[in-house]
Amino acid sequence: MSYHNDSSSEFLGLRTTRNGRMQVVYDARTGNRVVLDIEPMSTPKSEIDAALKEGIGARNVLGGVLSALKARNIGVDFAA
């Protein structure tokens, strides 16, 4: 699942690594990328999808998705 904001300048997506860890990928209009590891690994994809949909509509997309994940008690770590 992936989403672009209304101006198509920012991107949010969900990916799964080879070891099964889910990650949220955020690409900013400035070209910077932020990758968030989802904790715990057993978090339902439907909950993450709902948070991404909520976050992409926010004025500050990264802040919006972080708030939406926190509201659903989904933990994240900034990936190295």
Describe the structure.
The chain is built from two helices and five strands. With 80 residues, the chain is of the alpha+beta class. The chain has one domain. It has a five-stranded antiparallel sheet, with helices on one face. α1 (45-56) packs antiparallel against α2.
Instruction: Using the CA coordinates, give the radius of gyration.
Output: 12 Å
Structural class: alpha+beta
Tally of DSSP β-strands: 5
Please mark out the parts with pLDDT under 50 across 5 or more consecutive residues, or reply none: none
| Helix content class | 25-40%
Continuous helix count? 2
The largest sheet, given as strand count, sense and whether it forms a barrel, is:
5 strands, antiparallel
Please tell me what the overall shape is.
Answer: globular
H/E element sequence: EEEEHHE
Q: How confident is the prediction overall: mean pLDDT? A: 92
CA-to-CA gap between the ends? 22 Å
Estimated share of beta-strand residues: 25-35%
* Total of domains: 1
- Provide the spatial order of strands within the biggest beta sheet: 1-2-3-4-5
Question: What are the SSEs and their pairings?
Answer:
Layout: E1 2-4, E2 11-16, E3 22-27, E4 33-39, H1 45-56, H2 61-71, E5 75-78
Antiparallel strand pairs: 1-2, 2-3, 3-4, 4-5
In short:
The protein is of the alpha+beta class. Helices cover 29% and strands 32% of the residues.
Keywords:
single chain, 80 residues, alpha+beta, five-stranded antiparallel sheet, 2 helices, 32% strand
